[in-house]
Amino acid sequence: MMVADEVPLDDKAKRMRDLLSSFYSPESAMSTGTDSAKHASPDDINSNSFDPDHYMNLMVHKSNLEGLLQRHVEMAAEIKNLDTDLQMLVYENYNKFISATDTIKRMKSNISGMETNMEQLLEKIMSVQSRSDSVNTSLFDKREHIEKLHRTCNLLRKVQFIYDLPDRLNKCIKSEAYADAVRFYTGAMPILMAYGDSSFRDCKLASEEAMATIVKNLQGKLFSDSESIQKRAEAAVLLKQLEYPVDNLKAKLLEKLDQSLKDIQLKPEEIKDVSVDLTPSDSAHEASINEFVEAVRAFRVIFPDSEEQLVTLAKDLVTKNFAIAEEYVQTRVCAADLLGVLRVIWNDVLLLDEVLQEAALSNHSLEAAKAVVMSYIKSAFSHLLQDISDSLLKVLKKDGMGEYSLEVALDASTKAVLQGGMNILQEFRKLLDHNSGILVRLRELTIDFVQEGIQDFFRQLEDHFLRFSGRNNSSAFKDHGLVEGAQGDKAFAGLVLVLAQLSAFIEQTVIPKITEEIATSFTGGSVRGYEYGPAFVPGEICRKFRSAGEKFLHLYVNVRTQRISFLLKKRFSTPNWVKHKEPREVHMFVDLFLQELEAIGTEVKQTLPQGKRKHRRTDSNGSTASSRRNPLREEKLNRSNTQKARSQLLETHLAKLFKQKVEIFTKVEYTQESVVTTIVKLSLKSLQEFVRLQTFNRSGFQQVQLDIQFLRIPLREIVEDEAAIDFLLDEVIVATAERCLDPIPLEPPILDKLIQAKLAKSKEQNAIPS
Q: Dihedral angle at the C-alpha atoms of 442, 445, 450, 454, nearest 10 degrees?
């Protein structure tokens, strides 16, 4: 069976619109219906051409009984909905019609009395107009008379002003009120030009005579050096108002304006005064710059085409002030002084910018201020470098007050480096914290300048240390008034030791603190780029000073060892050892040797920390193998037979191959014991080499044996590696025996007796001064 087609929703909506349209506009609905009827089919139930019979036949053919019943239900529902919609439309429009009727009734009742009121108003207006006309007619003659009298009064006042003009001008000349005189004269010019040759001839002549005096006085003010720039500019303006030809005065006025720049430029004494008070409202400089600004403003009014010359003058003024500031910061100035100077200059720039915006002085000042800040940072680091150098060079000064304490010099130097560096960074921090317009724009560049300055400062400091440690720089030592000769050598060694410890202090303490401060207060920057050098690189600085410290420490060891070696060389190269007499006491070179070691111990105690004493063999990079001291060798040395003593040497050399190795030359540490031990080792090694260059008889060999045996006890007390020292002392005796013609040692009782005698003598000598 076929199912009946449902009516689309669009058709239903279309029917509703047609119904509403037909209700509100029947004509349009009819025309619309006529147009749609032309295109509608007979089975369209909403069209005018609808044919019920045709529609029923079509429905019967298309639908079954169930479909027809369903269509019947749908059409009944649609009819009911249409009836409801029509009822609502009729009700709503009926309410609107009733409201419109009530409104029309109220309007009709309100308008009913309006015509009477309008007629009464018209009558009153006509009455007022007639009375006004009568008043005007009665007062017309009097008004004309009053206006005539008023015009006459004004004319008489002008005539009186013309007659009084010469007296007024003379009074202005006496009081130097030239601006009022020019105003009076220019106001009277139209009358004088019209009637000056007839009625007011005398007044005109007297006024012209007075104005000639005024023009002369104004010219005098214009070219007077004692007058201020502002007054001269006012004089030029007044002359121009009098139509005086002032264009030819332009060059002279510009020259005067250029000369006045000398009074406006900052001077060192004024800069110091300004730095105390950053806002001196009544300062001479502020008054001068305000006067200059007013003169420039007046000059632009007088000479509109003078802009280029005025811009040049303003730029010259700002450039010279920044140049003076740059020269000023080369001296020792604090950040507050610099801020005061920059603030004064920046205020000048802002004032000039108000009258010369075309000059763009703010941008011009930026480059100049950059140079001033860079110069200040470099100067601050330069003065810090000088302070550190002065504290170090006190070790070498010829002060005539005895030796300068190395401990004091080291303490002063460490404070100068650490506290001086931190204080400078605090001063630089003030530049970043200041809210001045020009410094805010330079903040990133200032950070770059500070970091680059620190990097360059430590490089220069290392170079200074290296120059101080160079002995060939004798001219510099003489220029600073430093000691020379033996005392100078001793002071130089102390300076090198201070430099070594100071380098270690910079690496371990100063650089970490500086790095922390940089990370806290000077982050950012990186505006200038790598072409101007790297920023602060702490790792590189630490490596430089670590290497420099080790170099200075080795240099100190070498200097002290060379001095002792010179003493040993003189001792062993001077006498004739083949003809040496029997030993009766320890030789005096032993005392000199111990005195040198005592001086070294005093120096290292003042500068280096104390380490741990070691009573065993030490580890090191280099080693020298030899035999240790043993009773067998001493027993052989005590034999009286020369042949047996020589055979002992062969046995000793063979024993070296099987004895335990003793490492001698170890790495030098930053401790007192390490430095002293290294110097003693090198000295004993030099002693061994000097012995090998000589030939000894029995007495010479015994003298060396006595001296070496005496050195054992004091050397053990000051070194940290006793085994190595014993080994080297034994090596000296063995080397002497090898070079001896008859190597027979002293008997132990005799050896002990001579040593005890020396100890007693030394004790007695030490007790006498006390």
A: -160
Q: Are residues 42 and 73 in the same domain?
A: yes
Angle CA 207–210–213, to nearest 5: 150
The last residue of a domain, from among 74, 104, 134? 104
The three-point CA angle 325-330-333 to 5° equals 80
Render pLDDT for 195-215 as a digit per residue (tens, 0 to 9). 767 767 778 788 888 888 888
CB neighbours (10 Å) of residue 82?
Answer: 13
Rg (CA), the chain: 59
pLDDT band at residue 156 using 50, 70 and 90 as cut-offs = confident
Rounded to the nearest 5 percent, the helix, strand and coil shares of the chain are 75, 0, 20
Same domain membership, residue 589 and residue 505:
no
- Which of 71-80, 126-135, 431-440, 578-587 is predicted least confidently? 431-440
Q: In 3D, which of 683, 484, 472 has the Cα closest to residue 566? A: 683
Beta-carbon contacts of 23 under 8 Å, excluding residues fewer than 6 positions away, are: 86, 89
- Does any domain span residue 351? no
Number of domains in the chain: 3
**CA-wise closest residue to 758 among 709, 691, 722, 696:** 709
Range of the domain at 600: 575-767
For residues 550 and 610, state if they share a domain: no
Domain-located, residue 412:
yes
Q: Is residue 469 part of a domain?
A: yes
Residues 529 and 621 grouped into a single domain:
no
Quick check: 674 and 551 in contact, CB under 8 A?
A: no
Cβ atoms within 10 Å, residue 664: 25
Structure confidence at residue 706 (pLDDT): 92
- Say whether both 529 and 640 belong to one domain: no
Kindly state whether residues 522 and 587 are assigned to the same domain: no
Q: What are phi and psi of 729, to 5 degrees?
A: -65, -40
Are 583 and 684 in the same domain? Answer: yes
Given a contact cutoff of 8 angstroms between Cβ atoms, the answer to whether 285 and 264 are in contact is: yes
Spatial distance between the Cα atoms of 612 and 761, rounded to a whole number of angstroms: 32
Quickly tell me which residue has 């590696």 as its tokens.
721
